[in-house]
Amino acid sequence: MPETDVLVVGAGPAGLLLGAELALAGVRTTIAERHPARLPYCRGFNLNSRALDLLARRGLAEGLVAEGHRVPNAPATGLPGPLLLDGAATDHPFSLGIPQTRVEEVLEARARELGAEILRGHELRSFTQDDDGVTASLHNGLTIRARYLAGCDGSRSTVRKQAGIGFPGMDARWYALLGDVECDLPYGPTAGPDGRTVFVIPRPGYVRIVVREDAPPPDKDTPVTLELLQAQVDAVLGRHVELRNPRWLSRFGDAARLASRYREGRVLLAGDAAHIHPPAGAIGVNVALDDAFNLGWKLAAAVRGTAPEGLLDTYHAERHAAGARILANTRAQVALEEADAAEPWADLLRRVATHPAGNRVLAEIITGLDTCYEPGEHPWLGRLAPDVPLTVDGRQTHLAALLHAGRPVLLDLSGSLEGWPAAVRASGPSDLDVAAVLLRPDGHVAWVGLPGAGDAGLAEAMRRWAVPAPA
Ligand SMILES: Cc1cc2nc3c(=O)[nH]c(=O)nc-3n(C[C@H](O)[C@H](O)[C@H](O)COP(=O)(O)OP(=O)(O)OC[C@H]3O[C@@H](n4cnc5c(N)ncnc54)[C@H](O)[C@@H]3O)c2cc1C
């Protein structure tokens, strides 16, 4: 029976980044993906500031930014005007237009390069877990033994269902038809005689049409046909507008569900397998990457047996809470879109959004830039440390570059950590109000040394978060 350390199920954004992170940490990783090749259509088309900040901690953002198209605001629904990212807590104050499929290609190449094995055309059917590991059965009769199983297998996750993990939440109240087609409608919304709209999004060589269905279909899994989409577009517009050359036809709704646990013994969930939410804020790929980035180094340490007590459980604690916030803010955006202009809470939020400071806070919430795992006295605590310029051994570098190896970094900016041999002595901008900082491998700040406070509290932070390097 083939053996691996971690079997990742699903080669979407979550599975591929998780696979790359595990391989970076020297863990034997196998990714099983049911489709023999990447599908020809593309669901998402953006990376947000938070995802770019995280990818930059592994040196992966720069190439994508060079290829993509920058937009200075965060996508949001139901709020007046754009959510501007200028002044937001990010090193990437823009959203990046880039196909999800391209992001997946880059992550897949990295995972392979680092040694992860990717088995395409391999569908997980079932698994059992015991004290030492998981035995997974694939559709082709192959059985794989792994120490851990990571379900990155999307919203209908077989892993989640078979692990007996609940998926409580709300069913969709409405569905929209989606068509990647060619047609002569202008970009943006086109209203029909009764005010309902057909929305047209530009895509390379085609357009994406989105139009709500009048009522939820009897079976949401019934395939969408060009005839159905055409009939709905014509009905909404009150005239015939020809749709041509369909590339992808689908349906999505506003269901919101959150896995009750992100971990069940040796089984973990990440990405859409752990949460689904209304289509507001174009956040799905970004959250999937965020989950994988949080899980990778923790799971790697658990596999190597070097994880501090309770480390792997912090994955559920941190990302389940983040998932709940995403469900709340995407549901709020949809509710805002549907709210009557006279509803007082909608009026209040819209006014907050028109105020520059309020606008920035909303942008940070909707993109996840406000993610803070353990708040403390210093504003950096629990948050992603900014990518400040540094000088190390006379060499110019920057904070994110020190994290490329996926290791924790103890940064001594003031010579106050003499007794700590692992500390990286560096000098940074003169206006920094920190003397030293402990960065987790994901770049979140586990400890801040204040000027004059020496190493107070550092030993405890190291015990909790500093995973030792592989032998
Ligand atoms: C129309 C639409 C537009 C979207 N637009 C955006 C956007 O603009 N921005 C954004 O951020 N997000 C967007 N999203 C959401 C985004 O596509 C998802 O949130 C994202 O793909 C989730 O990544 P994932 O890796 O968790 O899951 P997925 O990308 O769904 O990957 C799961 C993988 O697991 C595989 N799999 C499933 N079951 C098995 C099994 N049993 N064995 C082996 N493999 C299996 C699947 O084939 C798939 O490849 C959009 C979604 C839709 C539907």
Task: Using brief descriptors, characterize the structure shown.
27 strands; alpha+beta; monooxygenase; Alpha-Beta Plaits; FAD/NAD(P)-binding domain; eight-stranded mixed beta sheet; Glutaredoxin; FAD/NAD-bd_sf; FAD-bd; 471 residues; binds flavin-adenine dinucleotide; six-stranded mixed beta sheet
Please indicate the percent range of residues in DSSP E strands (runs of 2 or more).
25-35%
Main sheet specs: 8 strands, mixed
Helical residues, percent? 25-40%
How many β-strand runs? 27
CATH topology of the largest domain: FAD/NAD(P)-binding domain
Note the total helix count: 12
Number of domains: 3
* N-to-C CA distance: 27 Å
Radius of gyration, in Å, reads 23 Å
Which CATH-level-2 architecture of the largest domain? 3-Layer(bba) Sandwich
Q: Which class of the largest domain in CATH terms? A: Alpha Beta
> Unreliable runs, pLDDT <50, ≥5 residues?
none
Shape: globular
Spell out the CATH superfamily of the largest domain.
FAD/NAD(P)-binding domain
